[in-house]
Amino acid sequence: MDDIKRFVDNDRFARHLGIEILEFSRGRAKARMEIKHQHLNSAGTVHGGAIFGLADAVFSAASNSHGTLAMAINVGISFFKAVKNGALTAEASEVSLNPKLATYLVNVTDDDGNAIALFQGTVYRKKDNIADLIK
Predict the structure, then answer these.
(1) Is this prediction's pTM over 0.85?
(2) Rounded to whole angstroms, how far apart are CA atoms 55 and 58?
(3) If DSSP codes are grouped into helix, strand and coil, which group holds residue 5?
(4) DSSP codes, 65-101
(5) What are the structural domains, with CATH classification, of the chain?
(6) pLDDT digits 0-9 by tens, 67-107
């Protein structure tokens, strides 16, 4: 899991957004993003792209947790509620796993546990080993 942790920690875009991966295990991951001024859109609520970025980062952590490179081939997100401050938490769980494809659901919630968004993604599982990519 050390190789996978280094791989996950190397997500430069997630770091740019201020996303912190809190935990991950086989097929699961949890992340948090403290809402800052730069995450807000013109209406003063968290930009959909920031929410998507959080969900995508935790999706990546969960889908790559098996040690095999997993690349998104299809994703979608539904937004339920606007949020202006506090923090967002995203939790990814594996729904389906086979040698070539895997599917994940990511729930994004606010500090009070309110549903903010639901992200669904499918990855193509390549033959590349994560350990070989981080050397």
Answers:
(1) yes
(2) 5
(3) helix
(4) TTSEEEEEEEEEEEE-----SSEEEEEEEEEEE-SSE
(5) 2-133 (3.10.129.10)
(6) 999 999 999 999 999 999 999 999 999 999 999 999 999 99
